[in-house]
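Appendix B, Record 12. Input sequence as logged:
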Amino acid sequence: MALELTTAGESHGPALVTIVSGLPAGLVLDKSAIDADLARRQQGYGRSPRQQLEQDEVEVLAGLRQGRTLGTPLALVVRNRDHKNWTWGMSPWPPEGEPQGKGTKPVTLPRPGHADLAGALKYGLADARDALERASARQTAVAVAAGSVAKTLLAEIGIDVIGRVVTEGLEQRIDEARAERDTVGGVVEVRAHGVPPGLGTYATKDDRLDARLAAALMGIQAVKGVEIGAGFELAEKRGSEAHDEILADADRTLYREMNRAGGIEAGVSNGEPVVVRAAMKPLPTLMRPLRSVDLETGEAGEALVERSDVAAVEALAVVAEAAVAFELARAALDKFGGDSLGDFVTAQSAYVERIPWRTR
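Logged structural output:
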């Protein structure tokens, strides 16, 4: 069974849910490690006060017994603690009594850059909240939980995945934007070390490892660009400058001195670290709102204002790390298979033993 991820939940609904299917049996999970990744997602310069309200932690509803996966679907939940302020406005069923709390008025002034307008038009919505709640980056909490599980699996075969911010001077930009009631974006990088050659394929375009990683990162809210390795820089170089020459040690183990390809050639990992970057646009919820049009009256107005981050670039580094880890875990399971963790590890070890490659 292929590794798959399904999520559900709204930003201010009762909870966020994910189901991870295709995990081998016998993988030992650590709740504190998952919670630590959830906490990392909520940290970072420029975040909103909501991050202190939520204090995310994972709950497991199925697929785990006494800390070990069962080989059955793993169901994870992250509660929205702020839902207590939205119980009427985000009630799953028609609410009773007088409107109270938040979310009681329809959203008719869409924010440029968010899902408000596109969602309202696509689904015929009178209240854009029906679109924006699901489109919110809040749902990345359960994606990070799933990514933490994927990192645990990858660690069993010696793969380590780390995300970081690469935009320089970010804190100063955030301070300047905050003073002007604005927002900023930035660029993050994810590196995966220990990835053996052979993950992914050139046989079908949908299964190319670079295509899968790019799709996973573009699926994260506010990401507008992805590059692998030297990426767009390679378009300005000659072939002799762009490609990584193949060398061998005395024992004929293959390696590269450069890694412009970002560890992937022809859609297949080549044994060098996998390196990907994602560019995040400035967040669309502004304390100094942009011009918009009221979808109910047709009159000009200012876009919706809700509590928002000035920047979430550091959070993106964690979310991107999770996305890359999940795709690498999926590719590794496609390559090595195994209903049990032992079968998976044994198959990977036999493969690595056969090829002239070692982790450098």
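Residues 215 and 226 are 9 Å apart (CA to CA).
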